[in-house]
Write a structure and sequence with these properties.
The chain is an alpha+beta fold and 83 residues long. It has 2 domains: 37 residues, YefM-like fold (3-Layer(aba) Sandwich), CATH 3.40.1620; 33 residues, no CATH class. The chain is built from 4 helices and 3 strands; from the N terminus they run βααββαα.
């Protein structure tokens, strides 16, 4: 575990954050007494974003009908934000 004084944290936070990003714990000291610890964040697995299947929805709603540009813009505006 590395140590850094409060003065070092104030003046060179970027370097200390690089240590933490590399996986090291950093003890923050004040008058040689540890007052805090910086530890790397636990990164969880991100959930995949479910994207809408526009083609399947259009097929279900309209079948094989050809949709005009104006109607398509209206559909997009109507369904914006629904995933």
């Amino acid at each position: 575990m590395r140590t850094a004084s409060i003065r070092e944290v104030r003046h060179d936070l970027g370097r200390i954050l690089e240590w933490v990003a590399d996986g090291e714990e950093v003890a923050i000291t004040k008058r040689r007494q540890t007052v805090a610890r910086l530890v790397p964040a636990v990164r969880g697995k991100r959930k995949p974003v479910k994207m809408p299947d526009v083609a399947a929805r259009l097929q279900k709603v309209f079948g094989n009908k050809v949709i005009s540009d104006r109607d398509m813009r209206h559909l997009w505006a109507e369904n914006r934000g629904e995933y």
